[in-house]
Amino acid sequence: CGTPVHAVVHLEKARRILSLDSDFIGSAQDAHRNIRGFALGRKSADDGMNRLYVVESMMSLTGGNADHRLRVKPSEVVQVAAAVAAELGVPGVASTSGAHSAWAGTVAKDLKEAGKAAVVVAGYSQPPAVHALAAAINAALGAIGTTVSLVQPTEPAAQGISELAGALQAGKVSTLVVLGGNPAYNAPADLQFETVARKAGTVIRLGYYEDETAALATWHLAGAHFLESWGDARTADGTVVPVQPLVEPLFGGLTEREVLARILGEAKTSPYDIVRETLKGLGVADDAAWKRFLHDGFLDGSAAGAVAATVNPSVAATVLAAHKPAQGEFAVVLHRDASVDDGRFANNGWRQEMPDPITKVTWDNVVMVSQKTAKALGLTTKRSGKVPENLSPAEAADAKDGQYDHPVVKITVGGRSVEGPVWVQPGLADGTVARGLGYGRRVVGRVGRGVGFNAYALLQSAFGLSSAGKVEKVF
After folding, report:
1. Which among 238, 145, 464 has a CA at the least distance from the CA of 331?
2. Which residue in 106, 107, 274, 415 is a FRET match for 219, CA 20 to 30 A apart?
3. What are phi and psi of 244, to 5 degrees?
4. Are 432 and 75 spatial neighbours (Cβ–Cβ below 8 Å)?
5. DSSP character for 312?
6. Confidence of residue 238 (pLDDT cuts 50, 70, 90)
7. Is the pTM of this model over 0.90?
8. DSSP reduced 3-state for 377
9. First to last CA, the chain
10. Rounded to 5 degrees, what angle do the CA atoms 340, 344, 348 make?
């Protein structure tokens, strides 16, 4: 086991970019910095415009900006990554991409020509094998230290919610404190978090809203909005930034820092005092330095430095050998919704009105399928009779050749099912269905009540965001 590191990509330095199902200018972490870096690389006067290759299953903002895009099932991304790695000589990795070997070979040749000016980025929903292959390819290209920096993780390693659910089930937790989040709604369905959480003697919840987790709490503490709170944070590269309130707390809410300080018996429980003490430990000792920190909006020189670590390419072959692809008739992809995220904005009417950047759908989380898949499932119907007048050429073609009638399908993964209306989406991989998370809330305000379907019923700890399952037409 090596040293844990965090990879920070510098797209502004990259002339060739390969995205392995990473929506780095859309839903991925640190998208704001990636957007700037990618845009700078697009208009570079010295080295020419960068070139972007994207391998993904569902159309994304990053895929929409690709120069060359390959749509494959989620389980096939690892095959393409392995083919590229094999072409670049990563030890122990053999190509298994089959039909996509020619595409992968062309990409590998272009990446090799760019050398250390190339970078490979893996998406957060992809398995460890893809991330290991991406790291090995970057190492083979010499990109470590140029387009990729290895830095100390900004957050310490922690146990996951599966371990917590196990401890609750075993009766080892007498008091459970939930600071933000809504695990009773969005935890993997197989953990049955709402049921096991009740095994704790006392459940204390700090949150903005009365939601699914608040409903099971013994005590619910009103959380202060971050715009009325003092705080601090670190960006993806470790830079320390302040969180400054715009107004005094309107309803006397509490922050996470206050609650933790009181639990720990700290002498100072004011969020302002806690932040000042934290920054003193980082060198902001006097009032002048503090005011400078607030004025600049970041602490100069606080970014995590590069660690003296190297990538062992042979690890990729080991992780790849242990990888077990999902088996099933259809690939099922669960993704963060562009409007309501993980459900936290479900009661915000403005967010519900905001069209999805790809589908333009509002107020719902549709089941996306490709045209070929829709026909295979019998989800399209032929239209007979005269074509209506005053239609655009595209509408006339649809009216003549066939009609999409928005049926409802049922998706089943691991014995759990959810239904939803179908939306035919160009650019989606054949044999794949995609469903947005964040809808179908049970305990929510009047705006979000009864909107959409709860796709978290398909999220299970053994499968993650990409799995395999069964799809059948309901009506």
Report:
1. 464
2. 274
3. -110, 140
4. no
5. -
6. confident
7. no
8. coil
9. 51
10. 60
